[in-house]
Amino acid sequence: MARNTMETSSPLYAVIDLGSNSFHMLITRQLADSVQVVDRIKRKVRLAAGLSADHILSEQAMAKGLECLSFFAERLQDIPKENIRIVATATLRLAKNRADFISKAEQLLAHKVNLLSGIAEAKYIYLGVAHTNCSLDKRLVLDIGGASTEVIVGHDFTVKKAHSLNMGCVTFMQQHFRDGELNADNFSAAIKAAEQAISVIKEDFSAIGWHCVLGGSGTMQAIAEVLNHQKKPPIICLALLYQLQAQILTFSHVDSINIPGLASERSPVIASGLAILIALFQQFGIEKLSLSSGALREGLLYEMLPNSRKVNIRQRTIRAIAERFHVDQSHADSIKQQVLLIFNQLQAHWQLPNDNTLAILLASCDLHEIGLLLEYKYHQQHSAYILGHADLPGFNLSDRQLLIAFVSHYKGDLKPTSLTKQSAVAADLALKFLIIMRLAVILCRRRKDDKLPRYQLVAKGDTLQLSLSALWLKQHALIHDELKQEHRHIARLGFALNITCEQ
Fold first, then answer.
1. Residue 58 belongs to some domain of the structure
2. Is 501 in contact with 473 (CB distance < 8 Å)?
3. What's the rounded Cα separation, in Å, for the pair 244 and 218?
4. Which long-range contacts (CB under 8 A, 24 or more apart) does 442-446 make?
């Protein structure tokens, strides 16, 4: 009997990152053009904490790191050697006795460990962002590690400028928050030290400029988790950082930090990481930062995969999910066609931007029926759940929120709560885009392209005038009735849909 398994058709890939704070192992396989995460393993080794003032790595720190790698070694046995990348970063760059550790690590892992320079690490971090974020805008990318902070400006897959600063959340914790003590003086000293380090590169980076700021380090992820616990959008601004600083200073020691949503393992280095992040915001005049879904490990991984730069990351994700959940792609394409027709008719009247919001709406058309694979009755909730928990490279957290809002309400009762909670676009604009999708879905109800009508749609303020053939409406009584129901649905939110018959 022939075997047709993912394992025989798709080999595994592994990336190991020997970071200054944590050791990470990422194991994936490539399915069609998409990447499926098979396993993630993370251990808080805090290698940088074992680095002395004269840059000698302690025996205890090395033993803890090697113990972790012995666990990783077991998992590497079934992965082709050409599909493995193992890298070491800032702490081992600084350690004078790194050769001893790296030699023992290579024996354990039966694979070469590549010591990345600061610039190489920065470039891979940027590529991880480029491979997992859809925006083509010029980006400023920030990454705060345990012993280094990387700053990169780039566009698409091209790095314009990269720099690695010798400061990180673990080393700053040792230097400025000795014995874990928290007070306003040591916090201010940490921010000032970080600003002095950043000031050397500030002018060169500012001269290039950027359109958006992305970050994916543990500090930024921890802050995003606090925001998520508060039911707030995952957008980081300087005012929020000041609030967190004030909140942290209510505690006298890092061990006593207790902020809802903050993981306990993050508490020992949140103050030092936050000090560095505040300095970055202040020095570069950053207004807001969005969380990236990729960084160093993703950069190493995607650069291993064939043709990874040739396939649009968002389309790769959509296609993979659509195939996995057996989406009726012909029907999805019909809805997208109607969405674009309606958008073109309403764009000027409603001042609709042709930007990422439209792209998210079209992605929603592709994915709104993925929940049908489970059952029909609650398929919208199932679709929302799947999209809320799936890996979605190419969609940041704000994109995901808007995608879920559209999918959750593409038909039936309209509840504005999810539209107000998402942070990708203003709620009133999101509602207008959602109305476009809902009308397109109703008009495509028969799921047959040759039965779609010709129509004219005009907006006068918040009132829509839809003109349809009287004969077509007579032949499609169910759709006509659903359009009438849609008038009642959107009327609750201040909109109106009037239907006129053309002879």
1. yes
2. yes
3. 15
4. 442/411, 442/479, 442/482, 442/483, 442/486, 443/338, 443/479, 444/331, 444/334, 444/335, 444/338, 445/476, 445/478, 445/479, 445/482, 446/476, 446/479
193 and 335 part of one domain: no
Note whether 397 and 224 are within 8 A (CB): yes
Q: How many CB atoms lie within 10 A of CB 53?
A: 7
CA distance between the termini of the chain: 63
Q: What is the pLDDT of residue 316?
A: 86
Domain boundary among 243, 266, 298: 298
The whole-model pTM stands at 0.83
Q: For residue 474, give the amino acid letter.
A: K
pLDDT < 50 regions, the chain:
1-8
The string of DSSP codes covering 454-492 is PEEEEEETTEEEEEEEHHHHHHTHHHHHHHHHHHHHHHT
Euclidean distance between CA atoms 257 and 267, whole angstroms: 6
Q: What is the pLDDT of residue 10?
A: 66
Angstrom distance (rounded) from CA 46 to CA 22:
6
Q: What is the pLDDT of residues 104-128, one digit of tens each?
A: 999 999 999 999 999 999 999 999 9
Domain ranges, residue 192: 119-298
What does the alpha-carbon distance between residue 166 and residue 90 come to, in Å, rounded to a whole number?
8
146 & 283 share domain:
yes
pLDDT per position as a tens digit, 373-402: 999 999 999 999 999 999 888 888 889 999
CA distance 346 to 342: 6
Distance of CA 338 to the CA centre of its chain: 29
Contact 32, 322 (CB under 8 A): no
